[in-house]
Amino acid sequence: MSTAPGHTKPKRTDGAPVSRLQGLAPVLSSNTRVLVLGSFPGAASLRAQQYYGHPQNHFWKILGALWAQPLTGMSYEDRLAVLCERGLGVWDVYGACEREGSLDADILNAELNDFSVVRWRCPQLEAIAHNGGESFRHARHTERLGVPVYKLPSTSPANASWSFDRKLEAWAEVLRRHGVAA
User: Where is the Uracil-DNA glycosylase-like domain (predicted)?
Assistant: First the structure.
């Protein structure tokens, strides 16, 4: 277990210790060509047990625009089926951590996921796309998979400096390059 460098211990206002959080299982298939790696699910995603579960997160909206499908109106299970069908996988760099709230800056004692499982579960893997800067800080680990590694702008609502259209353009470029978007 390692602490995310540069992160200080999150403090609760009531003085209680911050609890250890467990991430979500990977969404991978033998069809996965591009794996999107976030940092760690936010509080809304953990409550819902869904990747990108915050209603203001642009992840599902971006993919829906690229694939011309109403993903935000579908059930979560149907969205995951579309991801797998299209060759996109989803996971996070951290499998567990301590954090109060949802900000990456508050992550403490983060435990990296074991990316070695990706190679055998995704024989068609062509690329890794890190969703935001915190995830990309671990590119040295994902580069070991021997495929191109990209840093994409975070789809998080906390990334307000990028407009939706600007995020969409950046995501489209990488996903098109690997045949995951038209």
Answer: 25-175
Considering the domain boundaries, does residue 2 fall inside one? no
Closest CA to 131 of 63, 68, 38, 62: 38
Question: What digits encode the pLDDT tens for the residues 1-26?
Answer: 444 444 444 455 556 667 899 999 99
Instruction: Return d(Cα 131, Cα 38) in angstroms, integer.
Output: 5
Q: Is the pTM of this model over 0.70?
A: yes
65 lies in some domain: yes
Find the CATH number of the domain harbouring 110: 3.40.470.10
Q: Is residue 159 annotated as part of the catalytic site, yes or no?
A: no
For residue 123, give the DSSP letter.
T
* Non-local CB neighbours of 141 within 8 Å, separated by 6+ positions: 93, 112, 115
In a domain, 124, yes or no: yes
Name, in order, each residue with C-beta under 8 angstroms of 106's C-beta and a sequence gap of 6 or more: 7, 10, 99, 100
Among candidate residues 57, 109, 113, 131, the one labeled active-site is 57
DSSP state of 111: E
How many structural domains does the chain have?
A: 1
- Cβ 178 vs Cβ 38: under 8 Å: no
Tell me which residue range forms the domain holding 60.
20-177
pLDDT digits (tens, 9 = 90+) for 54-93: 999 999 999 999 999 999 999 999 999 999 999 999 999 9
